[in-house]
Amino acid sequence: MGLWLTPEEIVELTGYTRRTKQKLALGQMGVKFQSRPLDGFPMVPRWQFEGEVIRPQSKRRPEPKWD
Questions:
Q1: Which of 50, 39, 44, 6 lies closest to 25 in space, CA to CA?
Q2: How many CB atoms lie within 10 A of CB 13?
Q3: What pTM does this model have?
Q4: Residue 27: how many CA atoms within 13 Å on its side-chain side?
Q5: How far apart are CA 46 and CA 67, in angstroms?
Q6: Which residue pairs from 12-20 have beta carbons closer than 8 angstroms and sit at least 24 positions apart in sequence?
Q7: Hey, which bits of 1-67 come out as E strands?
Q8: Which neighbouring-strand residues pair with 35?
Q9: What is the three-class DSSP state of 33?
Q10: Please, what is the Cα angle at 28 between 4 and 7, to 5 degrees?
Q11: pLDDT on residue 53
Q12: Per 3-state DSSP, what percentage of the chain is helix, strand, and coil (rounded to 5)?
């Protein structure tokens, strides 16, 4: 399994085969992607769809417990 979704997976996700329509659909769904410079193909990172994303902890101080 690669780092990027396959062209078939992008078609399944977006419902479109044309790159311009795929990019439009991905943007409307809020999916992060990059356009490949060579041919404009939308490169979608697979991590967006695999498990839970671990986000860094905020640097806020913990609330005091007044119990």
A1: 44
A2: 17
A3: 0.71
A4: 9
A5: 45
A6: 13/44
A7: 34-35, 42-43
A8: 42
A9: coil
A10: 30
A11: 56
A12: 35, 10, 55
Read off the tokens for 19.
């790159």
Return the amino acid letter for 61.
R
CA angle 33, 27, 24 (to 5 degrees): 105
- For residue 59, the model assigns a pLDDT of 67
Q: Quote the pLDDT of residue 57.
A: 64
- pLDDT tens across 9-66, in order? 999 999 999 999 999 999 999 999 999 999 999 999 999 987 765 666 666 676 777 8
Q: Position 31: which residue type?
A: V
Instruction: Tell me, rounded to whole angstroms, the distance of Cα 40 from its chain centroid.
Output: 17
Q: What is the pLDDT of residue 19?
A: 96
Q: Please, how many CA atoms are within 13 Å of residue 51, restricted to the half-sphere of its CB?
A: 4
